[in-house]
Automatic annotation (TrEMBL):
PANTHER family noted in UniProt: ATP-DEPENDENT (S)-NAD(P)H-HYDRATE DEHYDRATASE, ATP-DEPENDENT (S)-NAD(P)H-HYDRATE DEHYDRATASE FAMILY MEMBER
Residues involved in AMP binding: 410-414, 439
Protein name from the UniProt record: Bifunctional NAD(P)H-hydrate repair enzyme
GO BP, sorted A to Z: metabolite repair; nicotinamide nucleotide metabolic process
Function: Bifunctional enzyme that catalyzes the epimerization of the S- and R-forms of NAD(P)HX and the dehydration of the S-form of NAD(P)HX at the expense of ADP, which is converted to AMP. This allows the repair of both epimers of NAD(P)HX, a damaged form of NAD(P)H that is a result of enzymatic or heat-dependent hydration.
Length: 501
């Protein structure tokens, strides 16, 4: 896992690396700037393209000056630097890089407080005004310059963080900040890049390694973690010779109503494709023909009106409840019966989450290690309204701990909060997956992995990753606009096999 740090810890990581590698601070800046350039030259190979750098006088600005010099060494020949002298202070590494840049043929302009901003005819803009040192919203000259740059409507590449955008903590609504087409960020994505508030400011980001001490970063034991493919490869177990369907557990999905049988079919199919040894669906009687024809692999327990279905609780390794279940009195009675009789972790999704939201006392009665899979609206119904995602992130951590549950908060970079107080950000998935029924598929995968004896937190992290990865494998190479849930399900065995290879 890649630990994600808040800005204060990023500064500590810098200081530790400088003192213990050891490396001088200006050489760390040089390393960061070279890492930036390494990525930049691949994306912007045209050396005749006019590029303007807007640099502040702190270390973000120092990076900007170093990057301009290094690009000049690479024979980029239309480089202009504008230094925003809005503060009396300038950092030592800014000063050192200013002296170095003066030795090159890069044009340097100084922009004083309150003066007119010069015309800009560049094609590409590098934003190195402010980075992770931002400590208040932009105002005055900074705000004026940032609005000017945004109005130019050019391709903007931000160094480390778009100027004015807070790397962590609550992002003020309608904040004035650079709208970057690309952010080349140092060492780790900043936590707020992974939350929806970043959408207007960060079109895409790339994290480049600048050699901050990994030992130190891990010692901070950050609650925020970024899940990468290597982490999933480590957890995923191979299927062995001489194993049989009993080895891989029995999933029971309690889902569907007459008009929402699709949800039951999708979640059951996903469970079977994600490797559950046996899958049973508890569905309304009217859905039996659909189940038998669509999924001959899946067994059925049928539900009749006003009758509680007969369930042999001990037979099932895990139970998932909710997709298409409805929220009527019968659904509530069924949910209560499940909670009363079943003592292993449950997976709770969709309508079952809304029933929990309306009957909050049930939340504290769920078996330890149970998994909730809310999207934003379901999350707020359960835990109260939130005005931003940073708050939601904090609540997910607090509630997962307090209730001894895992919470999968669905979004781009879906967050899994665990009872151990961690929040894992997923790194797979794409907008082609934004389609009805995708959540039902995820529920089926989570249940299948629980049945295969993965610990609840691992089952969540893996399921979310595999779900997104299957979507990426379908959508990205084929440039698909939409990936339908049924298609994604058939990709699951392929994706899982690749991850085990
Ligand atoms: N490990 C790394 O990631 C490395 C990062 N590097 C680069 O360093 C910056 C962070 O540099 P820093 O000097 O700490 O901060 P900034 O350049 O972002 O800001 C400079 C000063 O600006 C002031 N400030 C903050 N907010 C505002 C504002 N809204 N308006 C005006 N001025 C503001 C603040 O100073 P004060 O004294 O006024 O509080 C900032 O200190 C990081 O982003 C990377 O680009 C290193 O190069 C290598 C390692
Ligand atoms: K910046």
């Amino acid at each position: 896992m890649l630990p994600l740090l808040i800005s204060e810890q990023i500064r500590e990581g810098d200081a530790y690396t400088i003192a213990n590698e050891p490396i001088s601070s200006v050489n760390l800046m040089e390393r960061a700037s070279r890492a930036f350039v390494g990525w930049f030259v691949n994306r912007f190979p045209d050396k005749n393209e006019p590029i303007t750098f807007y640099c502040g006088t702190g270390n973000n600005g120092g990076d900007g000056l170093a990057i301009a010099r290094i690009l000049c060494d690479h024979h980029y020949n239309k480089l202009n630097v504008v230094i925003a002298r809005f503060s009396e202070k300038s950092s030592d590494d800014f000063k050192a890089n200013y002296e170095r840049l003066k030795q090159t043929c890069v044009t340097i302009k100084e922009l004083e407080k309150g003066t007119q901003i010069p015309e800009d005819n560049s094609r590409v803009i590098i934003d190195a005004l402010l980075g992770s040192g931002l400590n208040k919203p932009l105002a005055g000259d900074y705000a004026r310059l940032v609005n000017f740059i945004n109005d130019l409507d050019k391709t903007v590449v931000a160094v480390d963080v778009p100027t004015g955008f807070f790397s962590d903590g609550e992002v003020p609504q309608n904040a004035i900040a650079i709208k970057a087409g690309l952010v080349i960020t140092f060492q780790q994505p900043k936590i707020n890049f992974l939350l929806p508030e970043s959408a207007p400011y960060v079109d895409c980001w790339e994290a480049v390694n600048i050699g901050i001490s990994e030992k130190f970063v891990h010692s901070l034991n950050s609650p925020y973690q970024f899940v990468e493919e290597k982490d999933i490869r480590q957890i995923l177990k191979p299927r062995h010779h001489f194993s049989n369907k009993g080895t891989y557990g029995h999933v029971l999905l309690i889902a569907g109503q007459e008009k929402t049988m699709g949800a039951a079919l999708l979640s059951s199919s996903a469970a079977a494709h994600a490797g559950a040894g046996l899958t049973t669906a508890c569905i309304p009687e009217s859905g039996l023909t659909a189940l038998n024809s669509y999924l001959p692999e899946v067994m059925a327990i049928t539900r009749r009106e006003n009758t509680m279905p007969q369930i042999e609780w001990d037979k099932f390794s895990t139970i998932a409840v909710g997709p298409g279940l409805g929220k009527d009195g019968e659904a509530l009675a069924l949910l209560k019966t499940i909670i009363k009789n079943y003592k292993k972790p449950l997976v709770i999704d969709a309508d079952a989450l809304n029933l929990l939201a309306e009957n909050k006392e049930l939340l504290t009665m769920l078996p330890a290690g149970s998994i909730l899979t809310p999207h934003m609206k379901e999350f707020d119904r359960l835990f109260g309204t939130h005005s931003n995602w940073w708050q939601r992130l904090q609540t997910s951590i607090v509630k997962a701990k307090e209730l001894n549950l895992c919470i999968i908060l669905k979004n781009d970079y879906t967050i899994t909060a665990t009872p151990a107080g961690k929040a894992y950000f997923n790194s797979t998935g794409n907008p082609a997956m934004a389609s009805g029924g995708m959540g039902d598929v995820l529920t089926g995968i989570v249940a299948a992995l629980l049945a295969q004896k993965y610990k609840p937190a691992d089952a969540c992290i893996m399921a979310v990753y595999i779900h997104g990865k299957a979507g990426d494998e379908l959508a990205l190479p084929n440039r698909m606009n939409v990936v339908l849930p049924g298609k994604l399900i058939t990709q699951l065995p392929v994706t899982m096999a690749k991850l085990k290879a």
